[in-house]
Amino acid sequence: QVQLVESGGGLVQAGGSLRLSCAASERTLSMLGMAWFRQVPGKEREFVASINWNGGRTAYADSVNGRSTLSRDNAKNAVLLQMSSLKPEDTAVYYCAARRVTSWSAPRDEIAYGYWGQGTQVTVSS
What we know:
It contains no helices and 11 strands. By secondary structure, it is mainly β.
């Protein structure tokens, strides 16, 4: 069982930056494909970014592409989502997800991920 713990959320002004971290209990996080999703109350959870098991492939939602970077920090057993130029529409609960698959793909569909964190709130004020 993989346990995921998100951190780094909070309140930030529009135009600011945040770095979200997702730490895994799995000692071999390097063997996990990882992703971030977000959800606003009353709406479906949506894809934000993903990275495959070795960091060789990443994918981003159009809404955050160019403003976000997802990277792996295997020494810290974590993945980091750096977000900049934040907008009020980025306000959501951000969830980290993992899949125990070592493949080239970095899926955008939440059904591909079997492990989920509890979420961290990001609020961007205008």
